[in-house]
Amino acid sequence: MTQTPPLLEVRGIRCAYGRNAVVHDLSLHLPRGVIAGLVGPSGCGKTTVLRAIAGLQPLVAGEILLEGRVLSGPGAAVPPERRGIGMVFQEHTLFPHLSIGDNVAFGLRGRPAAERRRTVERMLALVGLEGLAGRYPHELSGGQQQRVALARALAPGPRLLLLDEPFSSLDVELRQRLALEVREILVREGITAILVTHDQGEAFAICERVGVMHAGRILQWDTPYNLYHDPADRFVADFIGEGVFVAGRLVDPETLETEAGVLRGDRAYPWPPGTAVDVLVRPDDVVPDPDGPLAAIVRNKAFRGAETLYTLELPTGARVLSLFPSHLDHGIGERVRVRVAADHLVAFPREEEAAA
Ligand SMILES: Nc1ncnc2c1ncn2[C@@H]1O[C@H](COP(=O)(O)OP(=O)(O)OP(=O)(O)O)[C@@H](O)[C@H]1O
Fold first, then answer.
1. What does the alpha-carbon distance between residue 174 and residue 298 come to, in Å, rounded to a whole number?
2. Bridge partners, 222 (sequence order)
């Protein structure tokens, strides 16, 4: 149905270590030029999926196509070095005995010397390391080394770039800066990429599409905005961002009677009136308002610079999180008034009833 075939198609793949199946019937489509991410709790299978795409992990079932050509599948297993796929790993990926220039030129063996030299220069300039070709990896900082790893992966002109936790060995400030830099480089070069990270903030900063994985499956493949505001299920709602569930009951399709008051949003819920639900309330849904209908008590606070994250106890005893501009400073135990901005609240039928 799509006009142009996706650059990468993963169709119903299964992967296992021995008898232990860890990726189940997983599919994804990646259009050309898109930077996508995979996030999920430790052990959910992110790295295994990336390794399967790179050709480092055999498939039990399914197939993987790049530009319509089968790379892995029944009767096909194109070796990793012939896939046209670049990879950047977490750390220690440079060859310590090779200069920076030779590291970057590693994937260019067999090309004319002049072309190799030009490409190395261009790649080092691209990652902001001009003039460092003669140095050795141990003479560079961790951030510089990861930039070299990126330059080396991009040098042969891969059709797809895979990044497996490329910033996780760096300190927080550097990883945030480098993540944005890398995004700029990939966008400028029109590179299609998949980033695996356990840091959803990093995925949101870099990726246009993010898949949330759990136990070997992708539960939702969507924009960061939709993952946050319109999570497909309870796991995604819980995993992405901050927030708490408050108990409630559907009065009519648009109205919820909850521990945080009666809430009317802009969406209609499909369940019969009376259905018990849990409503996801994000910190940005609970707004300070001197005339607000809810009197809450401050139970905890975490200063975050521009904002403070308050834990507030409502009259029903339910607790919600709320972001206040940090100049609105309240002490623990103080009473504040808030309202719930309920425009697009997400609700799920309460689990025991859903299961009944
Ligand atoms: N070489 C291996 N042999 C056996 N089991 C493995 C091997 N590598 C991974 N596993 C198991 O496969 C599952 C998926 O692992 P994988 O590394 O893909 O997860 P992940 O989501 O990338 O985790 P993390 O975020 O911790 O890196 C885990 O249960 C893990 O224990």
1. 34
2. 210
Rounded distance from Cα 343 to ligand 1 centre (Å): 39
ipTM of the complex: 0.97
Query: Which of 197, 212, 237 represents a domain boundary (last residue)?
Result: 237
pLDDT digits (tens, 9 = 90+) for 292-327: 999 999 999 999 989 999 999 999 999 999 999 989
CB of 44 closer than 6 angstroms to any ligand 1 atom: yes
160 and 273, same domain (yes or no): no
Q: Which residues contact 229 (CB under 8 A, 6 or more apart)?
A: 344, 346
Buried b (16+ CB within 10 A) or exposed e, 170-181: beeeebbebbee
**Is the same domain home to 218 and 248?**
no
Closest of 193, 219, 217, 228 to residue 346, by C-alpha:
228
Q: 149-161, pLDDT tens digit by residue? A: 999 999 999 999 9
**Token output for 161:** 């770039």
Domain that holds residue 43: 8-237
Strand partners, 194: 36, 162
Residue with the smallest CA separation from ligand 1 atom 25 is 42
Question: Which regions of the chain are under pLDDT 50?
Answer: 2, 355-356
Give dist(CA 60, CA 110) in Å, integer.
Answer: 34
Any alpha helices (H) in the chain, and if so which ranges? Answer: 46-54, 100-104, 113-126, 142-154, 172-189, 200-206, 224-229, 234-239, 351-355
Question: Considering 237, 259, 274, which residue would you say is the last residue of a domain?
Answer: 237
Is any ligand 1 atom within 6 A of the Cβ of residue 22? yes
Q: Which of 318, 356, 314, 309 is nearest to 335 (CA)?
A: 314
How many structural domains is the chain composed of?
A: 2
Question: 207, 36 in Cβ contact below 8 A?
Answer: yes
